[in-house]
């Protein structure tokens, strides 16, 4: 009768992992390759899915299991449940994508009060037989009946104490028998039912329990973290037992074919003699380093080395192998690709290429972008690190220093003013996302490796220490205490997300070293990829860093970031608040040399590579003080003034706060102080004529801030709309660019400036702005204008711009898709608020496949980009196109960009190497797909 729900090992192979799970497929593959694998069979993932549909084992499955058991019986010359020669089996989970330790396993199944005696007689070793039986009852109790393991451990401990046994090995057969009785009573008491003596009942219950373990909470969390689909299900492997705990010529262990921490090509692992599988992982006895096996059992060691080499060659990857030695015979119980550190991953991939096992393309395809993330983050300069005041969980790699802040809003506000901050919270919630985003690192006193803070920080590649219990936070008082020291808001902190350490002060950080293997791999990537990789850099340091990581240009220099430094902000405010053209011109005149030297330094750092400078983009109110703070201060000054007026009646009346309605003029109000903040509010009522003047200035400022207020600032007076209304601002920036170009040319430095106009939605906007650029170029460069190869282009951030791409392209040398704003406007989701409100819910509940601000939305935003590129290129085939939103550093989005034929992606400096690899992977995949489709076509033709 044909089988529907299971497959014997010799019937399967590696390619059937979807059906047999990784473990089942590999056991099948090893069996077919002739390695010593105990016989067995695999119940498929399809049966698991059917189990979840029907809430019971699917019809016919158990009949097939019984038949398959008969085959095992013949092979082993034993019978399941036969007291004379009992067959024992293991029942193990095995998912398609490896989920180490997340699901359940039962060993020694088939033992009962009778067969245990048979096993004792057959092996002439009652101690061994009863040891196996007590292990089975314990595993069965925890896995099938869900009794906490601690109950069993307690009884075991008590038994050992009562018998003065220091180790499991010194427990006698009689003592094990006593424990078996205790365990059985424990099950009866806690589960309300007896441990089953019918071996097929055991098997039935065990298979069901393994299926159930697919949905235990740790497996669910692991799947969510690793993007493993819930509907995959697990397979169940039923395999004849071999016993590492039979005698001193037996043992069990785990080896990696290479060192998983460093990647060094030596066998790495541990083993225990006279022990069963779980002992190695459970830490009951300390395992020996695998090198010891060479002395203990030299012939077995030789065999193991040979098998490891064979398996690595066969699977063309570093393997993690479980083995058992039964009375001098070596068996393979499992092989899978071994988990490894980022550093090891690079070394292993490069060495496998050198050994001729992998091609360069295959090695590139194996690189996990998240691995690179770990390799590229700064780490602590250990020579300068003080003792940690507390340690939490190392939740997201990299070290970070910053000033402590206790709320997400504060983190955002401080970061906006250019400060490095560490967000310190008891735990984070989705509402804190903007704070996590703004902070250099995150520290929480509660929560584990899968807490919100940990998951989010890892997703962002941001250092994070979670669950630091030594930290007591008093958020209301804006302070925390750790190791007896108080951290107030603004105090410097350093966290190390790789080890979990928390230190007070600003500990120097070391930039990541790019290992020789990583550099080699990146070189291979560059040889393969077609798409260029630029960086988003707003200052010379970031530009230099980006170049050291291999950036081939600056794809976005956000010039507003140059306006935010404490020295410049007052001048910017003076420019915004200028009463007259003359005052504005004066302020712009002060800013120009600063911008000029910024631009020149970036040009120098990029040494002739393209530098895309975006003219001012955000709404002007972002440079002014917060209205609420101003009003608080006003209330304070007015109250004090009234108090003074009561004691000196001749004082003038306060002019009062101007109404919002009559404050709409474009440029009114005096030049003001910029340091209005809660801290500067005086404590009491002694006022002077100077404070009257301050009050008047404050009121003018309030009028101005209200005048600039917009209900929807992100859809308001920003981007090129500013340039059109205030051409003198863009004019100054353009002049600074060309002045910097001249400075560099004078010093013999090549430059390739690209001037980028933001937020264009209509071709006329770009036309006017381009005219402005050309006019200033003419003024600055005169007859030399044609000798400086500058380009003018635009960001495509508004859906209308994408839809009218050909008209806009008529005035553009390049398009840079600002996918942050384009996503915001296409979805109608606020990029500042959506994640903290509904978007996380959408993603968690699979309404959306991904967060569209992280992964480019193929169907909507992608379609707009594709359409814009295709239509614009029909008019201007050489139009340069790229992406400079956050998506430029996301591997999945990079693949889509390659597919749509973009010329470059631009991302933050630290993501440049990731983008280089991802661009190469996209190229390799595309070539592979083309090859396959050609082969397909040929098949059809022939
Ligand atoms: C964008 O919108 O994608 C972009 C790069 O600009 P910004 O993030 O500065 O708005
Ligand atoms: Mg934008």
Automatic annotation (TrEMBL):
<dbReference type="InterPro" id="IPR010121">
    <property type="entry name" value="Pyruvate_phosphate_dikinase"/>
</dbReference>
<keyword id="KW-0067">ATP-binding</keyword>
<dbReference type="InterPro" id="IPR013815">
    <property type="entry name" value="ATP_grasp_subdomain_1"/>
</dbReference>
<dbReference type="InterPro" id="IPR018274">
    <property type="entry name" value="PEP_util_AS"/>
</dbReference>
<dbReference type="Pfam" id="PF02896">
    <property type="entry name" value="PEP-utilizers_C"/>
</dbReference>
<dbReference type="InterPro" id="IPR040442">
    <property type="entry name" value="Pyrv_kinase-like_dom_sf"/>
</dbReference>
<keyword id="KW-0547">Nucleotide-binding</keyword>
<feature type="binding site">
    <location>
        <position position="797"/>
    </location>
    <ligand>
        <name>substrate</name>
    </ligand>
</feature>
<feature type="binding site">
    <location>
        <position position="797"/>
    </location>
    <ligand>
        <name>Mg(2+)</name>
    </ligand>
</feature>
<feature type="binding site">
    <location>
        <position position="821"/>
    </location>
    <ligand>
        <name>Mg(2+)</name>
    </ligand>
</feature>
<keyword id="KW-0670">Pyruvate</keyword>
<keyword id="KW-0418">Kinase</keyword>
<feature type="domain" description="PEP-utilising enzyme mobile">
    <location>
        <begin position="420"/>
        <end position="500"/>
    </location>
</feature>
<feature type="domain" description="PEP-utilising enzyme C-terminal">
    <location>
        <begin position="515"/>
        <end position="923"/>
    </location>
</feature>
<keyword id="KW-0460">Magnesium</keyword>
<dbReference type="InterPro" id="IPR023151">
    <property type="entry name" value="PEP_util_CS"/>
</dbReference>
<dbReference type="InterPro" id="IPR000121">
    <property type="entry name" value="PEP_util_C"/>
</dbReference>
<protein>
    <recommendedName>
        <fullName>Pyruvate, phosphate dikinase</fullName>
        <ecNumber>2.7.9.1</ecNumber>
    </recommendedName>
</protein>
<feature type="domain" description="Pyruvate phosphate dikinase AMP/ATP-binding">
    <location>
        <begin position="302"/>
        <end position="348"/>
    </location>
</feature>
<feature type="binding site">
    <location>
        <position position="818"/>
    </location>
    <ligand>
        <name>substrate</name>
    </ligand>
</feature>
<feature type="binding site">
    <location>
        <position position="821"/>
    </location>
    <ligand>
        <name>substrate</name>
    </ligand>
</feature>
<dbReference type="Pfam" id="PF01326">
    <property type="entry name" value="PPDK_N"/>
</dbReference>
<keyword id="KW-0479">Metal-binding</keyword>
<dbReference type="GO" id="GO:0050242">
    <property type="term" value="F:pyruvate, phosphate dikinase activity"/>
</dbReference>
<feature type="binding site">
    <location>
        <position position="820"/>
    </location>
    <ligand>
        <name>substrate</name>
    </ligand>
</feature>
<feature type="binding site">
    <location>
        <position position="614"/>
    </location>
    <ligand>
        <name>substrate</name>
    </ligand>
</feature>
<dbReference type="Pfam" id="PF00391">
    <property type="entry name" value="PEP-utilizers"/>
</dbReference>
<dbReference type="InterPro" id="IPR008279">
    <property type="entry name" value="PEP-util_enz_mobile_dom"/>
</dbReference>
<comment type="similarity">
    <text>Belongs to the PEP-utilizing enzyme family.</text>
</comment>
<feature type="active site" description="Tele-phosphohistidine intermediate">
    <location>
        <position position="452"/>
    </location>
</feature>
<feature type="domain" description="Pyruvate phosphate dikinase AMP/ATP-binding">
    <location>
        <begin position="57"/>
        <end position="298"/>
    </location>
</feature>
<feature type="region of interest" description="Disordered">
    <location>
        <begin position="641"/>
        <end position="692"/>
    </location>
</feature>
<keyword id="KW-0808">Transferase</keyword>
<feature type="binding site">
    <location>
        <position position="558"/>
    </location>
    <ligand>
        <name>substrate</name>
    </ligand>
</feature>
<dbReference type="GO" id="GO:0005524">
    <property type="term" value="F:ATP binding"/>
</dbReference>
<feature type="binding site">
    <location>
        <position position="819"/>
    </location>
    <ligand>
        <name>substrate</name>
    </ligand>
</feature>
<dbReference type="InterPro" id="IPR002192">
    <property type="entry name" value="PPDK_AMP/ATP-bd"/>
</dbReference>
<dbReference type="GO" id="GO:0016301">
    <property type="term" value="F:kinase activity"/>
</dbReference>
<dbReference type="InterPro" id="IPR036637">
    <property type="entry name" value="Phosphohistidine_dom_sf"/>
</dbReference>
<feature type="active site" description="Proton donor">
    <location>
        <position position="884"/>
    </location>
</feature>
<dbReference type="InterPro" id="IPR015813">
    <property type="entry name" value="Pyrv/PenolPyrv_kinase-like_dom"/>
</dbReference>
<dbReference type="GO" id="GO:0046872">
    <property type="term" value="F:metal ion binding"/>
</dbReference>
């Amino acid at each position: 009768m044909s089988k529907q729900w299971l497959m014997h090992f010799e019937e399967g192979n590696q390619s059937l992992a979807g059906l047999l799970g990784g473990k089942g497929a590999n056991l099948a593959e090893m069996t077919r390759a002739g390695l010593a694998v105990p016989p067995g069979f695999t119940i498929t993932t399809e049966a698991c899915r059917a189990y979840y549909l029907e809430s019971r084992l699917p019809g016919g499955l158990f009949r097939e299991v019984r038949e398959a058991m008969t085959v095992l019986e013949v092979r082993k010359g034993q019978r399941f449940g036969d007291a004379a020669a009992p067959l024992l089996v293991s029942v193990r989970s095995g998912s398609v994508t490896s989920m180490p330790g997340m699901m359940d396993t039962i060993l020694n199944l088939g033992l009962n009060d009778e067969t245990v005696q048979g096993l004792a007689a057959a092996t002439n070793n009652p101690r061994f037989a009863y040891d196996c039986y007590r292990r089975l009852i314990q595993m069965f109790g925890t896995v099938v009946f869900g009794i906490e393991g601690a109950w069993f451990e307690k009884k075991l401990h008590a038994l050992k104490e009562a018998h003065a046994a220091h180790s499991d090995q010194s427990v006698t057969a009689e003592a094990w028998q006593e424990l078996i009785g205790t365990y059985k009573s424990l099950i009866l008491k806690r589960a309300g039912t007896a441990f089953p003596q019918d071996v097929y009942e055991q098997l039935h219950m065990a298979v069901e329990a393994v299926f159930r373990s697919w949905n235990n909470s740790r497996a669910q969390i692991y799947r969510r973290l690793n993007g493993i689909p819930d509907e995959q299900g697990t397979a169940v492997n039923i395999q004849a037992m071999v016993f590492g705990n039979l005698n001193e010529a037996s043992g069990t262990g785990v080896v990696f074919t290479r060192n998983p921490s460093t990647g060094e090509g030596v066998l790495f692992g541990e083993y225990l003699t006279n022990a069963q599988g779980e002992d190695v992982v459970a830490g009951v006895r300390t395992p020996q380093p695998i090198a010891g096996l060479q002395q203990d059992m030299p012939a077995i060691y030789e065999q193991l080395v040979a098998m490891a080499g064979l398996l690595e060659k066969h699977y063309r990857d570093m393997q993690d192998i479980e083995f058992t030695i039964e009375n001098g015979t070596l068996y393979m119980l499992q092989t899978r690709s071994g988990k490894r550190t980022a550093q090891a991953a690079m070394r292993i991939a490069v060495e496998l290429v050198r050994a001729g096992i992998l091609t360069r393309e295959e090695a590139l395809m194996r690189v996990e972008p998240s691995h690179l993330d770990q390799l590229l983050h700064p780490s602590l300069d250990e020579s300068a690190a003080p003792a940690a005041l507390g340690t939490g969980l190392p939740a997201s790699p990299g070290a970070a220093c910053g000033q402590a802040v206790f709320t997400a809003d504060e983190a955002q506000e401080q970061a906006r003013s250019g400060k490095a901050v560490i967000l310190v919270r008891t735990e984070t919630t989705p509402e804190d996302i903007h704070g996590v985003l703004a902070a250099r690192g995150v520290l929480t006193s509660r929560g584990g490796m899968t807490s919100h803070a940990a998951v989010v920080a890892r997703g962002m590649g941001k250092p994070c220490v979670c669950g630091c219990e030594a930290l007591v936070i008093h958020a209301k008082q804006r302070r925390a205490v750790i190791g007896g020291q108080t951290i107030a808001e603004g105090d410097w902190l350093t966290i190390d997300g790789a080890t979990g350490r928390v230190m007070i002060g600003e500990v120097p950080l070391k930039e990541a070293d790019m290992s020789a293997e990583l550099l080699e791999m990146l070189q291979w990537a560059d040889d393969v990829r077609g798409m260029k990789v630029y960086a988003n850099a707003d200052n010379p340091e970031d530009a230099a860093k980006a170049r050291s990581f291999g950036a081939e240009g600056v794809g976005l220099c956000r010039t507003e970031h140059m306006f935010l430094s404490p020295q410049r902000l007052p001048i910017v405010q003076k420019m915004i608040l200028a009463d007259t053209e003359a005052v504005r011109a004066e302020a712009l005149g002060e800013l120009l040399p600063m911008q000029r030297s910024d631009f020149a330094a970036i040009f120098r750092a990029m040494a002739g590579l393209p530098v895309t400078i975006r003219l001012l983009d955000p709404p002007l109110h972002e440079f002014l003080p917060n209205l609420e703070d101003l009003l608080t201060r006003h209330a304070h000054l007015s109250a004090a003034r009234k108090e003074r007026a009561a004691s000196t009646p001749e004082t003038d009346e306060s002019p009062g706060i101007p109404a919002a309605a009559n404050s709409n003029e474009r440029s009114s109000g005096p030049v003001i102080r910029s340091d209005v903040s809660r801290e500067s509010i005086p404590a009491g009522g002694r006022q002077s004529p100077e404070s009257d003047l301050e009050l008047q200035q404050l009121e003018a400022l309030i009028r101005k801030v209200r005048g600039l207020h917009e209900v929807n600032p992100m859809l308001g007076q920003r981007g090129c709309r500013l340039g059109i209304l205030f051409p003198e601002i863009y004019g100054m920036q353009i002049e600074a660019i060309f002045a910097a170009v001249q400075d560099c040319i004078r010093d013999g430095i090549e430059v390739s400036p690209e001037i980028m106009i933001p937020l264009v939605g209509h071709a006329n906007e770009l036309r006017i702005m381009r005219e402005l650029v050309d006019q200033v170029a003419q003024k600055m460069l005169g007859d030399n204008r044609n000798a400086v190869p500058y380009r003018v282009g635009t960001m495509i951030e508004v859906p209308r711009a994408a839809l009218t791409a050909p008209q806009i392209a008529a005035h553009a040398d390049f398009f840079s898709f600002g996918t942050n704003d384009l996503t915001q406007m296409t979805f109608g989701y606020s990029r500042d608020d959506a994640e903290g409100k509904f978007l996380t819910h959408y993603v968690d509940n699979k309404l959306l496949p991904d967060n569209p601000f992280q992964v480019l939305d193929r169907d909507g935003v992608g379609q707009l980009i594709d359409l814009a590129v295709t239509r614009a290129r029909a008019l201007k085939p050489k139009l340069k196109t790229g992406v400079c939103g956050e998506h430029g550093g996301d591997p999945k989005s990079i693949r889509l960009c390659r597919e749509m034929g973009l010329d470059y992606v631009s991302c933050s400096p630290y993501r440049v190497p990731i983008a280089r690899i991802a661009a190469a992977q996209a190229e390799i995949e595309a070539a592979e797909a083309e090859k396959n489709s050609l082969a397909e076509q040929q098949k059809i033709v022939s």
